[in-house]
Amino acid sequence: MKKIVIIMICFFLVKSSYTKAQVTDTLTYLQQIVANKNNYIGKPFSTLEKDLQIRAKSFCPYADITYDISKETSTFIGFINPITMEDFSFPGLIIYWQPYLNHKTADSLYTKAGGGWTPEVDSFYSSGIIKDIRILQP
Asked: pLDDT-based confidence at 22, cuts 50/70/90?
């Protein structure tokens, strides 16, 4: 019995050491990310994602080039799963890409996942090169 208790304590201690710090004010935290965006511009999204203390929960791809909608110019990254209309007023990040990403693939992932952040979505965006980072606060 003692061994089980010791193993459980060790498990929780190890797990807690790998847990990211709690973010209590999302907007303030995102403002810090934007203030330090030079650390991420020109680098893959995976670099930013590794540093984030909050997990992406949702996304929405944008194709803002009217003459070529096959190119995704930016992506909204949300940090909560929107359930009510009030949730859409929660701040998130807009990531601008250079070079642009494939909007058809992103749109297909968006439809498949219902806008949720899945491992497949993560894999698609992880190699995208960041051009700029801004806060979207509706």
From this structure: low
